[in-house]
Design a protein that fits this description.
Blueprint (H helix, E strand, L loop, with lengths): L8 E2 L21 E4 L5 H11 L6 H9 L3 E7 L3 E10 L2 E9 L8 H15 L4 E7 L3 H9 L3 E10 L3 E9 L4
Parallel strand pairs: 5-6
Antiparallel strand pairs: 1-2, 2-3, 3-4, 4-5, 6-8, 7-8
Length: about 180
């Protein structure tokens, strides 16, 4: 939360410079992206618990608030709807965690969060974004594909229950 602490970033659900598909503005109207604060933790943890079989703890999110290389962005309208946690290491952004509240899914919120990460990565001079996704998470894989990510590898048995992780990368272009 260091670079843009306290400022609001209006989600711009329009195509970015790379031309990758993002949802039309009408699907994201009224969504505001802001840095995570400790006050957001109860809502983030509720989303985390319903989204992942091995959810992060409150202390894990609190640690992210103290890491200079970390940033957690939340999407909100009247309520907190989703979040994305990322690290920037050298010239790469690593997306660690993305989740949207079940009632808010398929409304462009996940796409707005990922598009914001891509915008920030490009602005910070990153060459690429990477992430891991469960092989069985078809919806997330479709979202990432629509945002320019491609499969570059597999981590066998990475997740609990011996589920593979697909490694996805989005190579950024800089104009």
């Amino acid at each position: 939360m260091h670079a843009e602490s306290g400022s609001e970033i209006r989600s711009r659900c329009a195509a970015d410079q790379s031309g990758a598909a993002t949802p039309p503005a009408s699907t994201c109207r009224g969504i505001v992206l802001t840095p995570l604060t400790a006050a957001d933790l109860p809502a983030v943890l509720a989303i985390e618990r319903v989204s992942f079989p091995s959810p992060w703890s409150a202390s894990m999110f609190l640690q992210e608030l103290d890491l200079a290389l970390s940033r957690v962005v939340v999407a909100r309208s009247d309520a907190l709807l989703g979040y994305l946690c990322r690290w920037i290491v050298a010239d790469e952004m690593q997306v660690l965690n993305v989740a949207v509240a079940p009632a808010a899914r398929r409304r462009g919120i996940g796409a707005a969060l990922v598009a914001e990460a891509r915008r920030e990565a490009r602005a910070r001079g990153c060459a690429s974004l990477t992430l891991e996704v469960r092989r069985g998470n078809v919806a997330a894989r479709g979202l990432y594909r629509s945002q320019g990510f491609a499969e570059v590898g597999v981590r066998p048995g990475y997740y609990a229950r011996d589920e593979d992780a697909l490694i996805l990368r989005c190579v950024l272009t800089h104009d």
